[in-house]
Every structure is written in structure tokens, then in C-alpha cells.
Amino acid sequence: QFNTVIIEEGVQSIGEFAFLARSAYSIVIANSVEKYSPWAFAWSELISITNLNPIPVKISRDVFVTVDIAACTLKVPRNSVALYKRTDVWREFYILDLDGNEVEIDTELEDGSLLIYPNPSAGSCRVVIPEIFLGEPLLTLSIYDLSGVLLQQITVPKGNEEIIVDLELKAQGVYVVVMSNGEKSRKGKIMFE
Length: 193
Known about the structure:
Radius of gyration: 19 Å
Order of helices and strands: EEEEEEHEHEEEEEEE
Mean pLDDT: 89
Number of strands: 14
Distance between the termini: 42 Å
Number of helices: 2
Helix content: under 10%
Low-confidence stretches: 107-111
Strand order of the largest sheet: 1-3-5-6-7
Structural class: mainly beta
């Protein structure tokens, strides 16, 4: 049997060598953690991580020096599984939802369509800009209802990897989100609550 370490809500960073050479353990990381220092889990026998943050914090590979990431389970909120599976370092873990279930990822996400989170959303959401559009000077993001009526359109600022969209939708339901540079486009769906 291994121990479980709980990083309480309110803690914002995990420092260097915080879990250095710790024997077999699992860890629960609060939503409030925003920074992982290099070597935080170095040379430790990390078995599993439960990360309560719905948005993966960008980290470097040296946070987990010598940890066998592929053999380590990462549990995250169900609506965040696709996002973690597309984020450097985190995607190397065996990713499950918080209940320990595997989550089928919409195959549309794998062909370069838009990644939108949180999804469903009640007010604002983030849209990850696909690699083919990074650095594009003239990008627009359009939101349509299912009958094709344009409800909202914004210009995407150049140089961002993702944008925050304040949804100006009136009714609950599913909407189509399209990012385009005039020649190519990528689509996604947002559930508005």
C-alpha cells in the first residue's frame, strides 16, 4: 500500500525537490497550484496524480526527472481529459477522469479542429489556436447556431496561443465555433449552459 499526499487548496506552487526520492505514493493536487518547479518530483516513486485543475499548467519535463511517466496514472476532470492529452508533458501520462474511467476523445479533436474549454460553459471559454494558425495576422472566430445563423464574431489577436471568448449567447444549447484566416478554417462545438 502506498501513501497519498494532498496538496491543499490555496497552495500555489510546488517547489524544487519537494518530493525528492519519496517512496511509492500518490498525490492529489489542488486547483490552486499554478507553478511546478524543476525537479519537484525528482527520483521519486510517483504512482498516480489526481490533478483537480481543469486547465493544465504548462510545465517542463524536468519537473518529473526520472519518474516513469508512462506508468503513472493522471486523473483529471472529465471535461479536461482532451486538453491534458494535448498538452506537453501531461500527455505522456496514462490519463483518466477523476472516477478512474477512460474517456473517449472526439476524433474531430485529433484532426486539428478547435479545442474549447471549459465545455460546457456558462459565460466565457478559452479556445486553443491550432498550430496552422499560430502567428496568422488575420484570424476571425465566429459562433453560429445549428441552423447556420451567425451570432457572434471576433478578431483573434495575433501572437496568442489561446484566446478567452465572452459568449454573447442568449439560449442554452449547442453552437458551432469556426476559426478562419479566409482560406482555411477549423471548427468546434460549444455547449452553452
